[in-house]
Amino acid sequence: MSIRLENIAKHYGPRARALSPIDLDIREGELIGLLGPSGSGKTTLLRIMAGLEQPDPAPAGRIQFGERDVTRVHVRDRRIGFVFQHYALFRHMSVYDNVAFGLTVLPRRERPSSGEIRARVHRLLEMVQLEQLATRYPAQLSGGQQQRVSLARALALRPEVLLLDEPFGALDAKVRQELRRWLRHLHDELGFTSVFVTHDQEEALELSDRVAVMSNGRIEQIDTPEALYRAPANRFVFEFLGDVNHLEGEVREGVLTCGEARLAVDMPDGAAELLMRPHELSLAPAPSAEAHLPMTVTAVSPVGAEVRVELAADWLAEPWLATVRHADFEHLALARGKRLYALPRRWHRFDDQGARPAARPRLATAD
Amino acid sequence: MQRIGDAPALRRLLIGAAVALSALFLLLPLVAIFAQAFSQGLGTFWVNVSDTYTLAAIGLTLFITALTIPINLVFGVMLAWLVTRFAFPGRRLLQTLIDIPFAISPVVAGLVYLLLYGRNGWLGGWLDAHDIQLMFAWPGILMVTVFVTCPFVARELIPLMQAQGSREEEAAVTLGASGFTLFRRVTLPNIRWALLYGVILTNARAVGEFGAVSVVSGAIRGETNTLPLHVELLYQDYNTVGAFASAALLALIALFTLAAKAGLEWRAARREALA
C-alpha cells in the first residue's frame, strides 16, 4: 500500500519544533529508510505515520494509505505493523501468546477460530525460526530472538504497512547483518510497504530502496542509495553519509593555500572549503605539480578490503582519513610516523546555504 | 580477604542490637496483648469478643474496610495511570498532592472533614436541609478512611509504571487492542503484584485507623464505633480484659496482613529468580 504524507508538521510545545511541514511519497511495496542523527525527527515522523503521535492540527496535514485518508484514524484501526526499538514484547506472555495477541483481540466476528489462530501463529514462528521457543518468556530470549518475535507479532495481522523504529539498534553487529538480510527477504516475499528508522548510514544504504536523509525536522534529500552517495543534494547529506576530509583555505589565482599546503583549483579568489571522501585521496612519496599536501601517518588499520590510514598535519585542524589498497600499503611501506603527500583525485564543494553543490566535483590530474 | 564494614565484632553488635530492640518494642507488646486478653481464661476472652457491641464494632470495621479497598483500588489505578501515561501541566503538583494524607496528622484530616461536612460546617447547612447526615455516621467514617489510605495504591503503582513505560501498551494498540482489552491483558498483569501489595497496605491502615475516625465517628456504641475506638472505650471503662481482647483481634488482623505481604514478597522474589 502506498503512503502519502502532505504537510505534516509537529511541535512539542510552542518552541520545540520536531518536524517542519513535510511531504513524503512512498510507493507500494517500497522499503524506505529514514536516516538521520538523533533529534532529527525521524522517529517522530514514523510514529505519526503509525498514529502513535498526532501531527500539528494547523497547518492541516494529510496522511493517506493508498486511497484511504487515515489522518484522523486511530492507531488501532490503521492496520499497520509496528516494530519497536526495544521490542516491547509483553513480558508476562509466552512467545506464542505474544505472536497470537493481535489475532485474539480481533472483534469476535473477524476473529479466526482458535484452531486457525494456532496454525497461523505456528506458521509465523516457523517463518522466524522460533518454533521450538514458543513456550519461553521474552526475558529468556536473546536480543535477536526477541526482535524476531516482535516482527512475527507485527506481521500476524498481515499488515500492508510495516513500520520499524531502529529495529536493529540494540543488537550486536553480526546479528544485525543477519536480521537485515532476513528483513529484506521477508519484505520481498510478502510484498508489504516498509519504513524503518535508523541512525546507521550503512544500514540505511544497504537495506533501502530509497533513503530519506533527515536533519532538524526536515527531509534533506530522498533518493536511491546510489544517487544519494553520488549526488548529495547538500553538505549535510554528504557529511552524514560517510567519512569526510575537510580542506579550508584561501584561493588566489587558482591556488588554494592553507599553511604550507597548496592545491591547484579552478575557482574564483576568496575563502573556500573542499570536502573529500577517504577513497578520493591517494598517497604518494612526493608531491605533484597540482598538489602539495604534506602529511604524517598517525594510525594504520589494515583490517578489511582496504587499509584505513589516519593522517595529520600542522596545517589541519582535524586529521584526515584515507583508504588505500593493500598493494599500495605495502608499496608505500606505510607505518605510523611516515611522512608523505596526499593527492586528491576528486573533491566536492557546497555553498553555506547548503542547496546544490556550488561546483561539480572535478578531476585533478594527480597520477 | 575481609570486606569493608565486615568486622565480626561489629556485625555481632549490630545484629544483637537489632534483635534486642525488635524484641523489646515489637515482640514484647504483641505478647503482652495476647497475655492480657487471655489472662482470665479462654471463657472470659470469648465472652468479651462475642459481646454485642464488640461484634458491632468488628462488623463496622470490616464494612468500612470492604468499601475503602475497592474505592482506593479504582482511584489509585486511575491516578497512577494519569500521572505516568499523560503529560499535562500540573502533573508534578498532582504527584505531590497524592502525598498529603501521609503528610498531615489523621486528627487534622478528621477535623477538616468535620469543618466541611459537619452540622455547622460549610456544606453542613445544605446537607442538613436535604436530610443527609455524613458526620457521626458511617459515611463520615468511610470518607476519612478513604482519605487517609488513598496514597497507598497509587504510591505503589507510580514508580513501577514509570519504570515499565508505555511501550507494551503502545504495542498492544498497534495490534488493535481496545482500551479495556489493553488494560485487562497488558497493563493489569504487569502491575498486579504492586496492586495487591497496595491493597494489603490499604487494608492494614483502614482496619487500624484511629485518629481521623475518632473525630468524625462520635463513637456511638453499636452504631459508629469501630474496633480501634472500641478498644479505647473499653479501656476507659476499666474493662482491661475486654479492651485487650478486642486489641488481640486487631493484632490478629495485622498479623494476617503481614503474613500475606511476606508471602507475596517471597513469591515475587522467586519469580524474579526464575526469570
From TrEMBL, chain A:
<dbReference type="Pfam" id="PF00005">
    <property type="entry name" value="ABC_tran"/>
</dbReference>
<dbReference type="InterPro" id="IPR017871">
    <property type="entry name" value="ABC_transporter-like_CS"/>
</dbReference>
<dbReference type="InterPro" id="IPR005666">
    <property type="entry name" value="Sulph_transpt1"/>
</dbReference>
<feature type="domain" description="ABC transporter">
    <location>
        <begin position="3"/>
        <end position="241"/>
    </location>
</feature>
<keyword id="KW-0547">Nucleotide-binding</keyword>
<keyword id="KW-1278">Translocase</keyword>
<dbReference type="InterPro" id="IPR003593">
    <property type="entry name" value="AAA+_ATPase"/>
</dbReference>
<dbReference type="GO" id="GO:0016887">
    <property type="term" value="F:ATP hydrolysis activity"/>
</dbReference>
<keyword id="KW-1003">Cell membrane</keyword>
<keyword id="KW-0472">Membrane</keyword>
<dbReference type="InterPro" id="IPR003439">
    <property type="entry name" value="ABC_transporter-like_ATP-bd"/>
</dbReference>
<protein>
    <submittedName>
        <fullName>Sulfate transport system ATP-binding protein</fullName>
    </submittedName>
</protein>
<keyword id="KW-0067">ATP-binding</keyword>
<dbReference type="GO" id="GO:0005524">
    <property type="term" value="F:ATP binding"/>
</dbReference>
<dbReference type="GO" id="GO:0043190">
    <property type="term" value="C:ATP-binding cassette (ABC) transporter complex"/>
</dbReference>
<dbReference type="GO" id="GO:0015419">
    <property type="term" value="F:ABC-type sulfate transporter activity"/>
</dbReference>
<keyword id="KW-0764">Sulfate transport</keyword>
<dbReference type="InterPro" id="IPR024765">
    <property type="entry name" value="TOBE-like"/>
</dbReference>
<dbReference type="InterPro" id="IPR050093">
    <property type="entry name" value="ABC_SmlMolc_Importer"/>
</dbReference>
<keyword id="KW-0813">Transport</keyword>
<dbReference type="InterPro" id="IPR008995">
    <property type="entry name" value="Mo/tungstate-bd_C_term_dom"/>
</dbReference>
<dbReference type="InterPro" id="IPR027417">
    <property type="entry name" value="P-loop_NTPase"/>
</dbReference>
UniProtKB/TrEMBL annotation, chain B:
<feature type="transmembrane region" description="Helical">
    <location>
        <begin position="55"/>
        <end position="84"/>
    </location>
</feature>
<dbReference type="GO" id="GO:0015419">
    <property type="term" value="F:ABC-type sulfate transporter activity"/>
</dbReference>
<keyword id="KW-0997">Cell inner membrane</keyword>
<feature type="transmembrane region" description="Helical">
    <location>
        <begin position="96"/>
        <end position="116"/>
    </location>
</feature>
<dbReference type="GO" id="GO:0005886">
    <property type="term" value="C:plasma membrane"/>
</dbReference>
<dbReference type="InterPro" id="IPR005667">
    <property type="entry name" value="Sulph_transpt2"/>
</dbReference>
<dbReference type="InterPro" id="IPR000515">
    <property type="entry name" value="MetI-like"/>
</dbReference>
<keyword id="KW-1133">Transmembrane helix</keyword>
<feature type="transmembrane region" description="Helical">
    <location>
        <begin position="12"/>
        <end position="35"/>
    </location>
</feature>
<dbReference type="InterPro" id="IPR011866">
    <property type="entry name" value="CysW_permease"/>
</dbReference>
<keyword id="KW-0812">Transmembrane</keyword>
<keyword id="KW-0472">Membrane</keyword>
<dbReference type="Pfam" id="PF00528">
    <property type="entry name" value="BPD_transp_1"/>
</dbReference>
<feature type="transmembrane region" description="Helical">
    <location>
        <begin position="136"/>
        <end position="154"/>
    </location>
</feature>
<feature type="domain" description="ABC transmembrane type-1">
    <location>
        <begin position="58"/>
        <end position="262"/>
    </location>
</feature>
<keyword id="KW-1003">Cell membrane</keyword>
<feature type="transmembrane region" description="Helical">
    <location>
        <begin position="194"/>
        <end position="220"/>
    </location>
</feature>
<keyword id="KW-0764">Sulfate transport</keyword>
<feature type="transmembrane region" description="Helical">
    <location>
        <begin position="240"/>
        <end position="260"/>
    </location>
</feature>
<comment type="subunit">
    <text>The complex is composed of two ATP-binding proteins (CysA), two transmembrane proteins (CysT and CysW) and a solute-binding protein (CysP).</text>
</comment>
<protein>
    <recommendedName>
        <fullName>Sulfate transport system permease protein CysW</fullName>
    </recommendedName>
</protein>
<dbReference type="InterPro" id="IPR035906">
    <property type="entry name" value="MetI-like_sf"/>
</dbReference>
